[in-house]
């Protein structure tokens, strides 16, 4: 008789979670009565060690701010996770903890669903775990990119409209504008945007961040993070389940 199988999400201040609802719906659809998905809100990453002592734990997702910090607690990384330097999915099998990055898969699906040929250079806003996955995908497809942070040479204060005009793909990877701070918006020269631009904001809550609203007012094609989120979750489900074949 199978015992309960536990999955979950680790992060900080994560009462709102797409993942919990997503996986609980999945368990219902597949009639899996012995699966559960929990939110593990950790103040510090070292609290993850308490989780590892739970024998029913199959694995978990990882979100802000632990995608990079989790690595030192794992035994092994997938190729992508190692190249990216960030993990958002952990599989625990026979006590061995392996880190994966399914953000890359989710972003890749999102990008190629919307990208047009003329959109051949990208600006990545931010440099956290999600931004690293985005850069990995762009590099993989030989799409030149420039990362903008608060402290980079080209930063949020001096980024000009010409640079924005010249980069037809903009990916907003910072948490600025996430619920509940929906009024917040990055400093960005929106005047550089046009209908030739594709703007992807990885935030999914709210559906339309202030950043997306400002971008769409300039005629840009805008996409939020919802599809990427679904795709990375599907990939995580595959990782947690293939080992039972």
Automatic annotation (TrEMBL):
Q: What CDD domains does the record tag this protein with? A: NAD_bind_Shikimate_DH
Superkingdom of this protein's organism = Bacteria
Which keywords has UniProt assigned to this entry?
Amino-acid biosynthesis, Aromatic amino acid biosynthesis, Oxidoreductase
Q: What EC number(s) are associated with this protein in UniProt?
A: 1.1.1.25
Q: Does the keyword Amino-acid biosynthesis apply?
A: yes
Q: Which InterPro entries match?
A: Aminoacid_DH-like_N_sf (IPR046346), NAD(P)-bd_dom_sf (IPR036291), Shikimate_DH-bd_N (IPR013708), Shikimate_DH_fam (IPR022893)
* Pathway(s) served: Metabolic intermediate biosynthesis; chorismate biosynthesis; chorismate from D-erythrose 4-phosphate and phosphoenolpyruvate: step 4/7
Q: Name one GO biological process term.
A: chorismate biosynthetic process
One Pfam family, short name: Shikimate_dh_N
Record's protein name: Shikimate dehydrogenase
Whose protein is this, by species?
Chryseobacterium oncorhynchi
Q: Which gene encodes it?
A: aroE
């Amino acid at each position: 008789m199978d015992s309960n199988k536990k999955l979950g999400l680790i992060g900080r201040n994560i009462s709102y979670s797409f993942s919990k609802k997503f996986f609980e719906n999945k368990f219902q659809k597949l009639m899996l009565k012995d699966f559960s998905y929990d939110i593990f809100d950790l103040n510090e990453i070292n609290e993850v060690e308490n989780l590892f002592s739970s024998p029913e734990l199959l694995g978990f997702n990882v979100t802000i701010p632990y995608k990079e910090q989790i690595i030192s607690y794992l035994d092994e990384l997938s190729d992508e996770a190692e190249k990216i330097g960030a993990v958002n999915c952990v599989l625990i099998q026979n006590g061995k903890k392996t880190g994966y990055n399914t953000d890359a898969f989710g972003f890749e699906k999102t990008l190629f669903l919307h990208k047009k040929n003329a959109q051949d250079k990208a600006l990545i806003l931010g440099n956290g775990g999600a931004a690293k996955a985005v850069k990995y995908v762009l590099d993989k497809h030989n799409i030149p990119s420039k990362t903008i942070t608060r402290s980079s040479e080209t930063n949020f204060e001096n980024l000009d409209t010409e640079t924005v005009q010249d980069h037809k793909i903009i990916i907003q990877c910072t948490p600025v504008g996430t619920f509940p701070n929906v009024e917040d918006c990055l400093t960005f020269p929106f005047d550089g945007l046009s209908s030739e631009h594709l703007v992807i904001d990885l935030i999914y809550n709210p559906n339309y961040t202030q950043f997306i609203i400002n971008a769409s007012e300039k005629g840009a094609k805008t996409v939020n993070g919802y599809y990427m989120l679904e795709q990375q979750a599907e990939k995580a489900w595959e990782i947690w389940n293939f080992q039972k074949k």
